[in-house]
Amino acid sequence: MEYKLIAMDLDGTLNNDQKIITEKTKAALMAAQEKGIRLALASARPSPGLFKERDILRLQDHKGILMSYNGGRIVDAETGKVLFETSMDLHETKQVLRKLESLPVTPILDDGVQFYVTDKNGFKVDYECKNNNMVCSEVGNLADFLTFAPIKILMSVQPEELKEVQQKIAAFLPESLTVVQTAAFYLEVIPKVINKGQGIRDICSVLGLDTSEVISFGDAANDIPMLLAAGVGVAMGNASEAVKAAADMVTLSNNEDGIAAALEKLL
Fold it and tell me: Does residue 65 have a pLDDT over 90?
């Protein structure tokens, strides 16, 4: 099979546990680009959170793609042009934020430029800001403050409370929204139409590709739609059993150059 696109999650997949793209993985991906295969970074992060990996892999020079917000925004890395974008309804977002005030979560909003929170010292707030290299502004009340329609509501949650909190949120969300787990300590409320699998289909539509020509890599639950949508979905060795079950193949972990190992077999 002649593959034309490689789509990758970042944390736990492309990056090792030190948030680094190893030299072996970088070399394998650069070699793929030299063969004319495009790369797509597919993350739950806001767009600026993908810029470091974009620059390391030189996606601007190889017609790469940035898929941020789990597919909520898809950008041409070379031109910066937004190819697809799906936002939440402003009124519904305010209603959800009000209901979240009674739950043990720390909501984190962004407008694509900076983060907004009610407590800069909240759980994982500093981690998220540093991870995306974005400024964080503190506001009195998120629902009162909000004047733009965000793509998502990110929430940090203590891991031992996450599943129970996720169920409570799912019970009050309007039909248009869903809540997904994106890390051991993160939940996200996003439009139901947004997922990484739809993102892959949108990218293929723009580029004139068939999804069978795509290899995708992931490790978390929000990567499953992307693994299912691609011609070959590859789960990392550190992925959960549910992710591995959804994949076509399982490679080594993110700390063992799993992407490079799989590409050696597939390309």
Answer: yes
CA distances from 29 to 6, 79, 206 (A): 9, 21, 22
How confident is the model over 153-201, as pLDDT tens digits?
Answer: 999 999 999 999 999 999 999 999 999 988 899 999 999 999 999 999 9
What does the longest C-alpha to C-alpha distance in the chain come to? 54
- For residues 180, 181, 182, 184, the Cα torsion angle rounded to the nearest 10 degrees is 170
> What would the mean pLDDT of 37-44 be, rounded to a whole number?
97
Instruction: Let me know: does 259 contact 39? Beta carbons within 8 Å.
Output: no
Output the six-digit token pair for 104.
């043990």
What pTM was estimated for this model as a whole?
0.90
User: How far is it, in rounded angstroms, from Cα 153 to Cα 267?
Assistant: 38
Residue 5 corresponds to which amino acid? L
In angstroms, the CA 189 to CA 72 distance is 12
d(Cα 151, Cα 68) in Å, to the nearest integer? 10
- Specify the pairing of strand 106-110 against strand 214-218: unpaired
Kindly state the tokens that stand for 89: 């309804």
User: Between β-strands 232-235 and 82-85, what pairing exists: parallel, antiparallel or unpaired?
Assistant: unpaired
Q: Could you tell me whether strands 5-8 and 214-218 are parallel, antiparallel, or unpaired per DSSP bridges?
A: parallel
Give the position of tokens 């890599």.
Answer: 217
